[in-house]
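Cross-posting from the modeling subforum.

Setting up a comparison between two proteins and wanted a second pair of eyes on the formatting. Protein 1 (sequence, then structure tokens):
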Amino acid sequence: MIQRTKISRKRLLLIYSTIILIAILLNSLGEVTKNSIASNCVSTVFYPFRYGWNTMRSFKNYREENLRLKRELANLRVVVDRLLKYEKENERLKKILNFKEEKGVSLLLGEIVGRGVPRYSGSAVVNVGAKDGVRKNLPAIVPEGVIGKVVHVNARSSVVQLITAPGFRASAMDRRSRVVGILQPKRTGQLIMSEVPLTEDVQPGDEIVTSGLGGVFPKGLRIGYVVDVSANPDRIFKNIEIMPFADAAGIEELFILLGSGETDSL
């Protein structure tokens, strides 16, 4: 214990002596040298604090810059999405305009403003009506083909029963073999052509068009193509599945066919 006390005293004496020596040396130095040493000492002592402060400021600046870049990126994405939307809309409208000009028949363009009218399942509401020349049972078409028929007319709007609606029926014909059947929808969004005898010639890939029978659709309007033909020996009719050319769920506009007569060119 006494030995440890002596060692501690020697250490204190050494520290005091060192401090006194440093003080004498500093006192003997010039003013410029003193200021330089003092400045270096202060810089050394406060360097960790200064470094930490600068690091925090840099982190804050980086974070603000990151947020700014994210905002700019989000704005650019919005602009790009709008441009793509306008481009698609422009292409669709060009297609509609070209279709109307090419066919040379009386077509009335209607915009779909509603869907799912309670009284008419699977229907769409368009913004043209009796004052525009629309009448009940007029065909509704799009550039791809038949899309439905008018089932109700108001002064400024009409209800179109779409080709995929549960109650839709139309007389259809195989363009190649001229075989006629009754067109009706399936729950899958496809169509079937019923009442076709087993002996009739209908093949997958055949194009199906309106037959002109029934007094609603003129002859030759495109409907779809055959995707499957099957026969049950216990039945007298074939099972014919058809994929429609027109997408009833995705359309935004349609044409009401005001003219009449055969339309093999459509």
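Protein 2 (same layout):
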Amino acid sequence: MSYPQITQMATDNKSPKKNLRTSAQSADFHMVYGNQTITYRVLYAARRTMEIAVHPDGQVVIKAPADVKPEAIRHRVHKRARWITRQIAYFQQFQPRTPPRRYVGGETHLYLGRQYRLKLSKGGSDGVKLARGYFIVSYRDEASPATVRQLLDRWYLVKARAKFSELLELRLPEFQRMGYDKPTLHIRRMKTRWGSLSSNGVLTLNRDLIRAPRDCIDYVITHELCHLKYSNHSPEFYRLLERFLPDWERRKARLDLGLV
């Protein structure tokens, strides 16, 4: 199964009227439009125009000049609400709907962004190897779905440790030059997040991220490392992220739309 990739967000650029705000900040707002609620994030920055962006994951982001009042932004969002809801609906059609994995022969599973089919093989030991486009799962006693899942999960974890450590080491020098220490890497399954960085320097990555393309894993690692400098998602945070990854939005879209 292939996944659609949308590499550009929908945008609406127009100039607002000036007001007196001078400090940059960010905030989240909600607006009811018909039977829908539009949630949008406002990022204030040193810019002259207002931009409304609908990301492939459905997130609505408003980039506004620092001196624009929230009322003016709300008026613009209300004016463009129909367009915004259409863009959200457009992106929703690409959301993959992969059925629950059954861990049986012939079923496909992801590794580093590519699909591989399961091939079950009775042998002298339990294990998994990748060969010729297949996950070859060897088993001694029985190939029950629970056994296959356990073996595949164990293989994924080994690969995640190696690949995540490799990509962290490649990205880390840029942050060490800024004076930051190497965070401690933890890997575990996370229900709602791809990664996190704690205040005591622990970088936690979702084990399932090993299924994503390499550049998407690098995006998540870089995103979390940017939190070494900025603990929030302020305009300054996104400027730092863009400095290291000018195409971070493309990578994020690929991750959001290509992995379930």
